[in-house]
Amino acid sequence: PQQHYPAVMARGSHLAACVAAIAVASVISAAYAEVFFEERFDDGWEGRWVKSDWKKDENMAGDWIHTAGNWSGDPNDKGIQTNPDYRFFAISAQFPEFSNKDKTLVIQYSVKHEQKLDCGGAYLKLLSGDIDQKTFGGETNYSIMFGPDICGYSMKKVHAILYRRGKNHLIRKDVTCETDQLTHVYTFIIRSDMTYSIL
């Protein structure tokens, strides 16, 4: 079967995004949910994720640090954090093919920007299985892109984009993202009746 990849992308000047947990689930009812992918970034996470070489030849590639970050309630509860500032970041993990036909799809993850951002994004992308994880970058095709984007005073929004048949389908309303230095959970719910919610 074809594999799929949840992929985390971050870009930024003055960016320290900490991604703590990622879950992709399909929900049939409130009592039953099939989880297709879940990551808690515990020991062994590096064996499940592939760090991309995107922007490495331009000396603009950043790295990922496994840390609880600042202001942690539990030093053992860790995520991955971008480092250093003013770089581009891409990382992906593989999971088996799934279908959410006639089901609700839920994509959820948490982000903590530990410092004030000048410009940066912390997107989650759902990629198809035919990509090279080592070269995954900003131009890599995706099925879903979701997450916060902050740039200056004018851009503070949550992107939710579906890609189908060569075209990006953006949501028609602005959803403001959080800009403080606390942890926030972002949830994208896509229902089989073609409706969605962003929490």
Could you characterize what this model shows?
- Its main location: endoplasmic reticulum.
- The protein is mainly β and about 200 residues long.
- It has a single domain, classed as Jelly Rolls.
- Helices cover about 0% and strands about 55% of the residues.
- It has 1 helix and 15 strands.
- It has one helix at about 45-50, and strands at about 5-15, 15-30, 30-40, 50, 65, 80-85, 85-95, 95, 105-115, 120-125, 145-150, 155-165, 165-170, 185-190, 195-199.
- The strands form 2 sheets. Strands 1, 4, 7, 8, 10, 11, 12 and 13 form an 8-stranded antiparallel β-sheet that branches. Strands 2, 3, 5, 6, 9, 14 and 15 form a 7-stranded antiparallel β-sheet that branches.
- β11 (about 145-150) and β12 (about 155-165) form a beta hairpin.
- The longest helix has 4 residues, at about 45-50.
- The chain is globular, with a radius of gyration of 16 Å.
- The model is unreliable at about 10-20 (pLDDT under 50).
Structural class designation: mainly beta
Low-confidence stretches: 12-18
Strand content: over 45%
- Describe the sheet with the most strands: 8 strands, antiparallel
Which CATH architecture?
Sandwich
Protein name: Calreticulin-2
Subcellular location: Endoplasmic reticulum
GO molecular function: calcium ion binding; unfolded protein binding
Family: Belongs to the calreticulin family.
